[in-house]
Amino acid sequence: MDEYLSFKKLITPLLIQILFWGAVIGNTIESLFYSHGFFEAVFYLIIGPVLIRIICEGLIVIFEINNTLTEIRDHQRSSTAPTVVLSSSTPPVV
Fold it and tell me: Residue 79 in 3-state DSSP?
C-alpha cells in the first residue's frame, strides 16, 4: 500500500486494461445494434478491437518505459562506481 501512496507503483496500467475491455464491449454493442449494414457491422467487429488494443498498448508502453528507466536509475544508485586513480608520474591531459 505504501508503494501506491508514494507513487512508486502506478495504478494507471490497470485502469487502461479496464478501459480496454469497456471500449471493446461498447464497440461490440455499437457495431451490432447501430450499424447501417451487415458488412459495416463485421468491419467494426474486426477492426474496432484491434484499433482499441493498439491505442491501449501504446499507453501501456509509456508506463513500461517509465518502469524500466526507474529500474536503471535504482541499479545505478546501488552499484558503486569504480574510482579512478591517476599516477603522479604522468601529467593529466587537458
Answer: coil
pTM of the model: 0.67
Mean pLDDT confidence for 62-81: 86
> Is 48 contained in some domain?
yes
Q: Is residue 64 in a domain?
A: yes
Measured distance CA(81)–CA(87) in Å, rounded: 19
Residue with cell 508506463: 63
| Number of structural domains in the chain | 1
Distance between CA 21 and CA 35 in Å, rounded?
A: 20
Cell numbers for 8: 512508486
Residues 6+ apart with CB under 8 A from 87: none
